[in-house]
Design a protein that fits this description.
heterodimer, A: 390 residues, alpha/beta, 8-stranded mixed β-sheet, 14 strands, globular, B: 304 residues, mainly alpha, two-stranded antiparallel sheet, 11 helices, 75% helix, Branched-chain amino acid ABC transporter permease (chain B)
Chain lengths: 390, 304
């Protein structure tokens, strides 16, 4: 008798629990770069995003979510196919994760026209911030020019008057140097565009020495930046001409590949692991515990995207089909950002503080960034006026 | 003027690095008639092993000593397991198979060493710079690379011109069957030649390690230039590889260094820089096209 009533109670409990369990998880599709040399960028983005989900036991904002991840191999065509599959086969409504701007430009406009939400964790090309902006497109990281604008302003404020610029010869290279020049007030000792993917910079460094600038600013993502820094130090120019750059060449994983070479280099960023906000401590500690390494910028951006989506999902109670409600929930950005203050500008890119930081060696022999100061506070981007959002 | 001399040195150094790569590739191609796209992978293996051993032991020389046999051994294994089956096949099959090897090795390095690039520094005794030309300090390490390249060139010359193995290799290259009939163990010879080729690629990788980022896929960017070199020099010819490597090194470096200034004479600065940067990156291919129009088999073809 006793046994039977326990059994009935258990069955009742199961039935009661049923609807809750049956509530379908919200599917989020992550298209990111996990292979090629740049594969660690996607790895960091994914780990950051997943961490936010794990910290809530499979939920974001209390709503069960399922994260689908696929590797775009840095190829726009492949990314488009993945987006198609996520949308048509898997029934995904929210997409995120693209690392590279050229991939984002290929995927995002098509996706948002199909009434999907896209939240960018990294790529912030000017096209998508300006003329190509869209109500369904959000960028939680930065507009591409931001990390360069900080350094341009900082270098001018610090009294450098004759700066030498270096970037690869492709559209993003020109954009980034353009960002630097927007707030830089001095003269240019030279503006050099190198081959994309170039590994040897001996010729450029010799020309740089001959031009005798009082500072160098470079945008050379990935291995290009490592090569340039190593060779710059070997030419012993680092002792006389200080180097500046955007955060891209100085994340916590790349730094272990350049070590002493990068010490003292100042770079611009919207986030560093040492920012003193409670939400940031929580994130950095949890990430270190889960992965045994200090999170990079990219991990922070993945984490923030997840937390932003969590706040929105909570507001709409998991009902992602009401697009207008979901959009305005995301736009309100009602979450405790690890960057402190965070809000969306009219073109749905961040309004945030931007910092200058310096590469230092820690006591335990690793290399990391130390935040020096905020150069811009509540900074938006110049493309807001170009954006006519419908 | 000083800047020009310095850029000549830079061109020479790039040329020498390219020579180390192309000597091995052209040797394998000329003798075994096999197109080996995976040559860059052995360069990468050399760099990875050297970076790892150097980091563990703290000695660059130990890193070098470990990387050379490692690259040669992996090369000989690949020859025995994969390439041996491809000698009689079409060149297209060889290209496909060795392209597969590139992916295999890139993925393997990612699995073993992870995705982030490794660190490798210049050895302390080669850090700093020397004023070879007064007023122009030049990194000692790059001078060492030039010295090693010249040394390897001399050793290769001695090996081929003055030793029995060198004679057998040359015989095997001109006529495989005849050399076999005369008692040369062609199978063993091929394995050894391939090992020598990959050893040279590994050496180039070790030398590049302190200058460049040691990362998966680092072999591909130099591989393209290496192919340009052997096409210019004449496929299968070591002397051709030397001439081609120096030409490509000089053309690439001098183009990057001086084209912008040249274009600024008659164009506005912004336009000039854009055009010059684009032209500089095409320069070696233009050079290759010109050489091929003039001498379709390369500057110094291997067999007549």
């Amino acid at each position: 008798m006793m046994k039977r009533s326990v059994l009935v109670a258990m069955m009742l409990a199961l039935v009661a629990a049923g609807p809750c369990q049956a509530m379908e998880a919200v599917k989020i599709g992550m298209i990111t770069t996990l292979s090629t040399k740049a594969g660690y960028l996607g790895e960091e983005t994914r780990d950051g995003f997943q961490l936010a989900i794990d910290m809530e036991d499979g939920r974001l904002g209390g709503i069960p979510v399922e994260l689908l991840v696929d590797d775009d191999g840095r190829k726009p065509e492949k990314a488009k196919q993945i987006a198609d599959r996520f949308i048509k086969r898997d029934g995904v409504k929210i997409l995120t994760g693209i690392v590279f701007s050229n991939v984002a430009i290929a995927v995002v406009p098509k996706v948002v026209r199909q009434d999907m939400i896209y939240v960018s964790t990294n790529a912030g090309p000017s096209l998508l911030a300006g003329k190509g902006c869209h109500a369904n497109y959000f960028n939680v990281a930065y507009q591409n020019d931001n990390p360069d604008e900080v350094v341009g302003k900082y270098v001018s404020d610090a009294g450098f008057k004759n700066v030498y610029l270096l970037a690869p010869n492709y559209p993003a290279g020109k954009d980034h140097l353009g960002g630097f020049k927007r707030y830089y007030t001095g003269t240019l000792a030279g503006e050099v565009y190198t081959k994309l993917g170039q590994s040897d910079y001996a010729a450029e460094i010799a020309a740089l020495r001959a031009a005798a600038p009082d500072a160098v600013y470079f945008f050379l993502p990935g291995g290009m930046g490592i090569n340039f820094l190593k060779q710059y130090t070997q030419a012993e120019l680092n002792r006389t001409i200080p180097v500046f750059g955007p955060a891209f060449s100085f994340d916590e994983r790349l730094l272990q590949a350049v070590k002493d070479t990068a010490i003292g280099v100042k770079n611009g960023s919207q986030w560093t692991h040492d920012l003193d906000f409670p939400a940031n401590h929580l994130f950095v500690d949890a990430f270190r515990k889960a992965h045994g390494r200090t999170p990079t910028l990219y991990a922070s951006q993945g984490y923030e995207a997840a937390r932003l989506l969590g706040s929105a999902l909570k507001k709409v109670n998991g009902k992602v089909d009401d697009l207008a409600a979901l959009r305005s929930a995301i736009r309100s950005a009602d979450f405790d950002s690890i960057r402190g203050k965070f809000a969306f500008s009219a073109n749905q890119h961040p309004i945030q503080n931007l910092y200058i930081r310096e590469v230092v060696k820690t006591e335990d022999g690793t290399y990391t960034n130390k935040t020096l100061k905020a150069v811009f506070t509540d900074h938006s981007n110049v493309y807001v006026d170009e954006c006519k959002m419908k | 003027m000083l800047l020009f001399l310095e850029q000549l040195l830079n061109g020479l150094q790039l040329g020498i690095t390219l020579f180390l790569m192309s000597a091995g590739l052209t040797l394998v191609f000329g003798i075994m008639q096999v197109i080996n796209l995976a040559h860059g992978s052995f360069y990468m293996i050399g760099a990875y092993v050297a970076a790892t051993v150097t980091a563990r032991s703290g000695s660059f020389l130990l890193g070098l000593l470990a990387a050379l046999p490692a690259a040669a051994l992996v090369g000989m294994l690949v020859e025995m397991l994969v390439l041996r089956r491809l000698y009689k096949k079409d060149h297209l099959d060889q290209v496909l198979a060795t392209f597969g090897l590139i992916m295999f090795f890139n993925e393997l390095t990612r699995m073993v060493w992870g995705r982030q690039p490794l660190f490798m520094d210049v050895p302390a005794w080669l850090a700093g710079s020397v004023e070879l030309i007064p007023g122009v300090p030049y990194p000692s390490y790059r001078l060492a690379v030039i010295a090693v390249g010249i040394l390897v060139g001399v050793l290769l010359y001695l090996l081929f011109a003055h030793t029995r193995v060198g004679m057998q290799i040359r015989a095997g290259a001109s006529n495989r069957e005849m050399a076999g009939a005369l008692g040369v163990n062609i199978r063993l010879l091929y394995t050894l030649v391939f090992g020598l080729g990959t050893l040279l690629a590994g050496l180039a990788g070790v030398m590049a390690g302190p200058i460049l980022a040691v990362e998966a896929g680092m072999g591909e960017s130099i591989l393209i230039l290496t192919f340009v070199v052997i096409v210019i020099g004449g496929i299968g010819s070591i002397r051709g590889a030397l001439v081609g490597a120096l030409l490509v090194g000089m053309a690439d470096t001098l183009g990057r260094a001086f084209l912008p200034a040249l274009f600024r004479i008659f164009l506005s600065a912004a336009v000039a820089d854009g055009v010059a940067a684009s032209l500089a990156s095409m320069l070696v291919y233009i050079l290759m096209a010109l050489v091929l129009v003039w001498r379709p088999r390369g500057l110094i073809p291997a067999h007549g």
